[in-house]
């Protein structure tokens, strides 16, 4: 079981090519906070990225060069410009959406194009708590000169596909941005293991803990205990507990509960299975015990959670 792949799948992470940008001379554009993660790949030229800090003020600009890939995991408000001192104009969202649908490029500034960027967004399931984006810094920046061969090659494929659209280009691009995200995460995690220590992402650096997580992912309905998990891994209970806590920042039991509650939340929302069926599917033989665990984790009993999760937004469906 590939824990990262499984977590991305359960979290419903899906990429979509959002926009092509052709930057010319003297341009700057800004985007408001986005509910989705946002990624940019610089396929030619250069640009400057400025994001809003936690207090709303801009942080130091970051120069983006050809081949660079940058991810904004929380969709933070940001500007992209030809130079960092230029005052940006708010992006015309309606025009950007139209260009996304037609495959056109957002042309900024005057003169001949100097910079080409490809933007993408990544949606994820809001009912899932165990996902990647909340564990990453506000900017994940991979320089083209330091990117892996796989990441660089996928960005090149994106560039070729956008430069010469063919049949089903939209499908190809959406698949490629999913691949870009995985390669970016591989590259970043491999270079910054210390930044994820104490989270389930950090646990992927420890083969024993990864194996333990894999077994829980494969069989969430199994009545796992720390003792039975340790026996399955042929290590002592104390060794497993210590290494799991050190790597993931929580006990095996706490991680298992979180994983089970994510699976249960999705199943409650997406199926008409009874609460008893859902409870059994994630390892609870007692509906009462499941109700207590789920209410403690999600702040509402399963039946109410199901009803609320299926209720349309206040402003109606999209």
Write a concise keyword list for the protein shown above.
318 residues, alpha+beta, 2 domains, six-stranded mixed β-sheet, five-stranded mixed β-sheet, 20% strand
* Main pleated-sheet profile: 6 strands, mixed
H/I helix tally: 11
**Helix-strand makeup class:** alpha+beta
Question: Which CATH-level-2 architecture of the largest domain?
Answer: Sandwich
Counted up, domains total: 2
Query: Would you report the number of β strands?
Result: 11
Sum up the overall morphology in one term. elongated
Rg measurement, Å: 22 Å
The poorly predicted ranges are none
Report the sheet-strand fraction: 15-25%
The helix/strand order is: HEEEEEEEEHEEEHHHHHHHHH
Mean pLDDT: 90
CATH topology of the largest domain: Jelly Rolls
The share of residues in helices is: 40-55%
- What is the rounded distance between the termini? 36 Å
């Amino acid at each position: 079981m590939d824990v990262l792949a499984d977590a991305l799948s359960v979290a419903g992470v899906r990429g979509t090519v959002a926009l092509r940008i052709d930057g010319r001379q003297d341009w700057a554009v800004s985007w408001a906070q986005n509910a989705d993660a946002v990624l940019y790949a610089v396929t030619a030229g250069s640009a400057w990225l400025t994001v809003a800090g936690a207090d709303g003020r801009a942080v130091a600009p970051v120069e983006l060069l050809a081949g660079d890939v940058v991810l904004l995991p929380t969709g933070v408000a940001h500007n992209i410009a030809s130079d960092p001192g230029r005052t940006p104009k708010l992006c015309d969202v309606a025009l950007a959406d139209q260009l996304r649908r037609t495959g056109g490029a957002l042309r900024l500034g005057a003169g001949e194009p100097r910079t080409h960027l490809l933007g993408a967004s990544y949606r994820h399931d809001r009912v899932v708590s165990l996902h990647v984006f909340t564990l990453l810094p506000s900017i994940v920046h991979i320089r083209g000169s330091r990117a892996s061969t796989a990441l660089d090659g996928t960005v090149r494929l994106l560039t070729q596909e956008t430069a010469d659209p063919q049949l089903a280009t939209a499908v190809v691009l959406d698949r490629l941005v999913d691949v870009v995200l995985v390669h970016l995460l591989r590259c970043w995690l491999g270079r910054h293991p210390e930044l994820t220590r104490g989270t389930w992402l950090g646990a992927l650096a420890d083969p024993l803990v990864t194996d333990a997580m894999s077994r829980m992912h494969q069989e969430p309905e199994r009545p796992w205990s720390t003792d039975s998990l340790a026996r399955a891994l042929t290590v002592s209970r104390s060794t497993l507990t210590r290494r799991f806590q050190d790597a993931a920042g929580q006990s095996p039991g706490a991680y298992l509960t979180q994983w089970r509650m994510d699976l249960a939340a999705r199943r409650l929302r997406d199926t008409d299975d009874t609460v008893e069926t859902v409870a059994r599917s994630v390892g609870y033989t007692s509906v009462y015990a499941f109700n207590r665990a789920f209410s403690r984790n999600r702040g509402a009993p399963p039946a109410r959670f199901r009803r609320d999760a299926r209720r349309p937004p206040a402003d109606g469906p999209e």
